[in-house]
Sequence to fold (175 residues):
Amino acid sequence: MSGVFVLFFGATGVGLNHPSWTLGISGSQQALTCSFPAGFETNGTVDLLAVSQYLQDTDGVRDDSTDYGADATQGLMSFREPWYAADLFFDVTTGDYQLTVAQQGLRAVMCDLHKGRNTGGSWNWTIDVAGCLFVAVSVTGFGQQYFLLRRRARAYIVAGVGAVLTFLLIVVTAN
Fold:
């Protein structure tokens, strides 16, 4: 299981480092301008749940709103998933709205999952489990070197040099 996590997070980490690589799979973006039917607001108060349901029924917006708000003149709603983003801006007084929907390609989906962006609690737990497995694999591998007498000194030297180089790379790239 750790091997699958290493493969996934390693491959998606490279994808994050090279955002221009689409691997032939690109996303799509569409924008539309419409108006809400009469009754979406009452006495200047917008029923955001009804607006969300209307968008799901008529415009195919997926999932529940992750961010929303409205004042006396304008409002906004955002819908987010790892591969999907929809942003709604609307005029409270007229009912006119602009909806922008972006669906990303497979590479972007994998990178969003790598970062845990716009994912639910179960995926966050998956990332935590993967991190714990990575630590366990590293610690047990390092500990096994203690019992291999012929390789012990060389293994610890290589590990120490690797740690120093990693630290130097962090310092150099952080500036």
